[in-house]
Design a protein that fits this description.
Elements (H helix, E strand, L loop, with lengths): L37 E5 L6 E5 L12 E5 L1 E3 L3 E6 L5 E9 L4 E7 L9 E5 L6 E9 L5 E5 L5 H8 L25 E4 L11 H9 L3 E7 L22 E5 L1 H12 L4 E4 L1 H14 L5 E5 L14 E5 L6 H10 L1 H13 L10 E4 L1
Parallel strand pairs: 1-17, 3-12, 3-14, 4-11, 14-16
Antiparallel strand pairs: 1-2, 5-6, 5-8, 6-7, 7-10, 8-9, 9-10, 12-13, 13-15, 16-17
Helix pairs in contact: 5-6
């Protein structure tokens, strides 16, 4: 496809965001150490592209700039429950916590998870267990389940649950911490904010020592991140909703950075969505929390963002559409095709891209 001279208002077809990706370029395990992944640096104001290592990212950050990181922590949300009466095993994926120990879950197979069915989730090593009952079936098939023995819930879940790796990762993860950022703090995500996986404590310290400020937001990543766009006309796509928090301290940092003419750089599409959601809601950056279903695609006018650090995303996904909105469609698709030719690693455990 010739991506030159594309009118971004005409970018409404899902197929316009497709690219060929050999399966062997989908990273199956994290690189060691974290910051030795590759880094493509794309200047969105020119056609300049550089190939670096992630630890060299500090060379593209200047004193007074700020990085905004998502400190959401992934819960080990994949569990296998045994029906207390039928002795059938069902896979559960915790998606979203509601009040009174109720969770929205994805179940497989659904026919074995009827309303009023009770399940036991246990870990043989620690003898820890959880018990839950299915209380409702939502439109689309997700279940609401209510847990009973919820004392030390997350401690039990840590022993029982597995990390909810995306379906394109076939290898089992040996170390759960490798699907967490080193600054993960607030439990709630069903998937990792993967752009942050490349940072080490040492690299973050070097960045701070150079005079680059670091602020944190929270966006609990839902599995909607991996759901494909089904509509051929992307303007008909309904975005999933995710809970976010913009703390006052981070809001003040962003505002002060903009006032002195320095760059606000988002680490990941999740941090980007928080920043732009707050700006769209308030007309400025201030303390804010709530749900966002913002769909950033070509034609969107950014109110705050000056730079983006992100991984390489699935073809035809809302995430590659967001990147195209920020970097420009032609530059994005050309960069992706170049990444394939240069044999970059793709997706959650893959290499990174910096757009400035």
């Amino acid at each position: 496809m010739n991506n030159n001279n594309i009118n971004e208002t005409t970018l409404i077809k899902k197929s316009q965001f497709y690219y060929e990706l050999p399966e062997n370029l989908i990273a199956q395990k994290p690189i060691e150490p974290r910051d030795f992944s590759r880094l493509m640096v794309l200047d969105k104001n020119s056609d300049n592209i550089l190939h670096k290592k992630f630890y060299e990212i500090i060379d593209f950050l200047n004193p007074g700039d700020c990085l905004i990181l998502n400190n959401s922590k992934v819960i080990p949300a994949r569990m296998f429950g045994k029906n207390v009466t039928a002795e059938q095993t069902v896979e559960f994926l915790l998606l979203k916590q509601h009040e009174n120990n109720v969770w929205e879950t994805l179940v497989k197979p659904g026919k074995k998870a009827k309303i009023e069915s009770e399940f036991i989730f246990s870990d043989e090593k620690t003898k820890k267990f959880l018990k839950a009952k299915i209380i409702d079936i939502l439109p689309g098939g997700n279940r609401l389940i209510k847990f009973e023995n919820t004392k030390d819930f997350f401690d039990k879940l840590s022993a029982i649950g597995q990390m909810p790796l995306p379906p394109y990762i076939k290898e089992k993860l040996k170390d759960k911490s490798r699907y967490q950022t080193v600054y993960a703090k607030d439990l709630g995500s069903a998937a990792a904010p993967t752009a942050g996986l490349h940072f080490t404590p040492e690299l973050l310290k070097k960045i701070k020592n150079k005079g680059i400020n670091i602020g944190f937001v929270t966006l609990h990543v839902g599995l909607g991140t991996f759901r494909p766009v089904k509509e051929d006309d992307i303007s008909n796509h309904k975005m999933h909703s995710e809970y976010f928090v913009m703390p006052k301290e981070t809001a003040d940092l962003i505002e002060s950075t903009k006032k002195i003419g320095k760059k606000v750089i988002s680490v990941g599409t999740t941090s980007c969505r928080v920043i732009e959601s707050v700006f769209r809601k308030l007309g400025k950056i201030d303390k804010c929390e709530g749900e966002t279903d913002i769909f950033i695609r070509p034609g969107y006018e950014f109110g705050v963002l000056d730079g983006l650090i992100t991984n390489f995303h699935l073809p035809e996904s809302t995430l590659i559409m967001l990147v195209s909105a920020f970097a420009g469609y032609s530059k994005t698709m050309n960069a992706y095709n170049l990444a394939v030719n240069e044999k970059y690693n793709f997706f959650s455990f893959g290499d990174a891209m910096m757009i400035i």
